[in-house]
Amino acid sequence: MFRVPSLPILLLPVFSLAFASCAVSEPAPAPIGNGGGGARIQLSKAEASQIGRKIWQNECGGTVEGLTSWNKGEYFASLGIGHFIWYVKGNDGPFEESFPPLLRFLRDKGVKVPGWLLETPDCPWRTREEFVAARDTPRMRELRGFLQATIPVQTEFILHRLQRALPTMLASVPAGERRLVEQRFYAVGQTPTGVYALMDYINFKGEGTKASERYKGQGWGMLQVLQEMRGKPTGAAASREFAAAADRVLTRRVANAPKNESQWLPGWKNRARTYVP
Q1: 28 DSSP assignment
Q2: What is the CA radius of gyration of the chain?
Q3: Residue 231 CB neighbour total at 10 angstroms
Q4: 277 by DSSP, 3-state: which?
Q5: How many CB atoms lie under 10 A from the CB of residue 240?
Q6: Which residues touch 35 (CB under 8 Å, ≥6 apart)?
Q7: Mean pLDDT for each 10-residue chunk of the chain (277 residues)?
Q8: CA 134/CA 269 separation, integer angstroms
């Protein structure tokens, strides 16, 4: 059995430009605020579980088999509810590798990680064909079981990434744009649906701050979605505008892509529509 800690409280570091804390707890959720004195994302355990299930559905179809995937046409494994990327040695790509950081997070949270995962910094399956052929091997079955057992903490990992995202995004834009980006971020996060949208998109397309994640100089991460939003909507309207902006940004990515990515766009648009309350 894998030992997974309970998920009553999640305490995260203080950031001067973002949240003072981010909690998953039993009480009713408090909204995100942008004041400096204790603003937080607070989700009940039920809300955190629901968001985790939605992300699992988005990435894996909600199946255990989908927790260990390697998509056709890609050169990396996609693992866990967030399809966290794991590169083969010597074949790193432009997208942020997220599976090794997940393993470190799990270990630091007290989860017992299979020893071979801690001793294997790179994906041990060198090609998709190798990965698919190994589907029913003891090691792959152990990996799926481990990922299934740690779904609540994987959700926590995504929430942790979101909590760290705002300072990174603000540091990458001109000073004159920071206030508007910050306001829109907090506006989207005022409702549980908005928190889900932020968590899902940060896991789905990242922060948008890496220079390598650009086509024709234009990114597709959360920062670009926040910049694409129109006006200063609040409440449910903020989630709707975030969804519309995500649709526009993803459409632009496909138009700018050096290779044909049009097969992904309908699914991406459907995903963005789940952000609408």
Answers
A1: P
A2: 18
A3: 10
A4: coil
A5: 18
A6: none
A7: 36 28 38 41 81 93 95 93 95 88 96 94 96 96 96 93 93 96 94 92 93 95 98 95 98 96 95 94
A8: 32
